[in-house]
Design a protein that fits this description.
Blueprint: E1 12-16, H1 20-32, E2 36-40, H2 43-53, E3 57-61, H3 69-78, E4 87-91, H4 96-104, E5 109-112, H5 117-203, H6 205-208, H7 211-241, E6 250-252, H8 254-271, E7 275-279, E8 287-289, H9 291-307, E9 314-324, E10 327-336, H10 377-387, E11 391-396, E12 407-414
Parallel strand pairs: 1-2, 1-3, 3-4, 4-5, 7-9
Antiparallel strand pairs: 6-8, 9-10, 10-12, 11-12
This protein binds adenosine-5'-diphosphate.
């Protein structure tokens, strides 16, 4: 690639030489090319000019009255203002020592006297180019540094903003949890009294003999029971939230647990024409866990499978032993032939109060097809599984009520308890 010619008129040269003939020859020759030329007859004057005018390059004679060229160069290089100006020595001495010395004190090059004009021009041109390149590199570097700093500032600002937003969210979440706990506690006592009276009412003969009153008493009891379940779920979530869930690990036979759950659910399964199959659970090892809490997990997940599978469908609970990092685990998968879950909701369904159903379904049956809940079941299930040191997640091809692609809930539990109080 051809380098474009330099526009010499952009540059100022300082020539430091005590020989007037030499000075005028160089002056005429170089100014003929368009350079702006400054001259100095000795080192001291040269230093002053360099500091004032900041030339682009200095041609410096070695033999000078007062301080010599080497000393002048040392001082130029010691001064912050002039240290970057390239210096070319002019030496009448053919001695190698002087050339080396000149380079040692910081000169970029030298020319020997008598001066060959074309050579001087060629060297000046080369060093001005180098200087320009160095300068553009330095500018680019400075720009990159500046951009980096700006970027860092922005990242720091955004991080601080995010932290503030997160803290605010945490505060709100804590307030919400506190409120839920408070309300649930406050509701518990009157509700128990309410339920007690409703049950008494159901025993009263006049009520039993009156179909309308009997139905009213029954409705009050079932709905009070439902309300009690909801309060229980809310208290459970707030316990998980505040990490108050204390487990009592003991040997748990998951096969027995799921057979018992199956038997409990039999009336519902029959009513909804659903089949609940248990596969490969007998072979599972006994694990260490909290029976009551784990039962809640499976009751929730299987309960959901019932709710979100149309009549006539199949729910399969299968299990297998796995090894992970040299330790035994069991993985139980609850699959259904239900309406499935949209991929965007697979994680969200585990968050508090998240339901994909319509809000107006919320008061309907716990087992009816698509009967809605409060959106706490899976939050509780995840809290319990994680408190055991395990994992729970959902998989599905998608949500489609006509083709029913189904969902699979995976529950991975360590055989040896790894929970909070392990
Ligand atoms: P809910 O009380 O609403 O059932 P959950 O926390 O148990 O609350 O479930 C949250 C949401 O996840 C449900 O509203 C439902 O949309 C979706 N979901 C859970 N299980 C299934 C399933 N087996 N098939 C399809 N959707 C499901």
């Amino acid at each position: 690639m051809q380098t474009p010619p330099l526009d010499y008129s952009r540059y100022t040269l300082l020539i430091v030489d005590d020989n007037p003939t030499n000075l005028s020859v160089l002056f005429d020759y170089l100014s003929g090319y368009g350079f702006r030329i400054l001259v100095a007859p000795d080192g001291e004057t040269g230093l002053r000019r360099a500091k004032q005018a900041h030339p682009d390059l200095i041609l410096l004679d070695v033999m000078l009255p007062g301080i010599n060229g080497f000393e002048t160069c040392v001082r130029l290089k010691a001064d912050q203002d002039t240290r970057d100006i390239p210096v070319i020595f002019m030496t009448a001495l053919a001695s190698t020592d002087d050339k080396v010395r000149g380079l040692e004190v910081g000169a970029v090059d030298y020319v020997t006297k008598p001066i060959q004009q074309a050579e001087v021009l060629a060297r000046i041109t080369t060093h001005l180019r180098i200087r320009d390149l160095t300068q553009s590199l330095r500018d680019a570097n400075a720009q990159i540094l500046r951009m980096n700093r700006e970027l860092e500032d922005k990242v720091r600002e955004r991080t601080a903003e995010l932290r503030r937003a997160y803290e605010q969210l945490e505060r709100l979440d804590r307030k919400k949890s506190d409120l839920i706990t408070l309300i649930s506690h406050e509701l518990r006592t009157p509700l128990t009294i309410f339920m007690g009276y409703a049950q008494i009412l159901q025993q009263v003969e006049e009520v039993q003999n009156n179909r309308f009153l009997a139905e009213v008493a029954e409705k009050i009891t079932t709905n009070a029971q439902r309300l009690q379940d909801l309060i229980q779920a809310m208290l459970e979530v707030s316990r998980i939230d505040q990490e108050f869930l204390r487990l009592s690990p003991a040997p748990v036979n998951l096969h027995h647990m799921l057979v018992a759950l199956h038997d409990d659910l039999l009336p519902v399964l029959t009513q909804r024409h659903l089949v609940l199959r248990l596969e490969g659970l007998e072979a599972l090892p006994v694990i260490e866990g909290d029976y009551d809490e784990l039962l809640k997990v499976f009751a929730n997940v299987v309960g959901n499978a019932i709710k979100y599978t149309p009549d006539g469908g199949t729910i399969t609970v299968s299990g297998q032993e796995k090894e992970h990092e040299g330790e035994p685990w069991v993985e139980v998968v609850v699959s259904d032939t239900g309406i499935g879950i949209d991929p965007s909701s697979l994680e969200l369904i585990f968050t508090k109060f998240y339901t994909t159903g319509e809000i107006n379904l919320h008061s309907t049956s716990k087992t009816r097809f698509k009967g809605g809940g409060l959106g706490l079941g899976l939050t509780i299930a995840r809290g319990i599984v994680e408190a055991h040191g395990g994992r729970i997640w959902a998989e599905s091809q998608g949500y489609d009520e006509s083709t029913c692609p189904g969902s699979q809930f995976h529950i991975l539990l360590p055989v040896h308890f790894k929970g909070v109080n392990a």
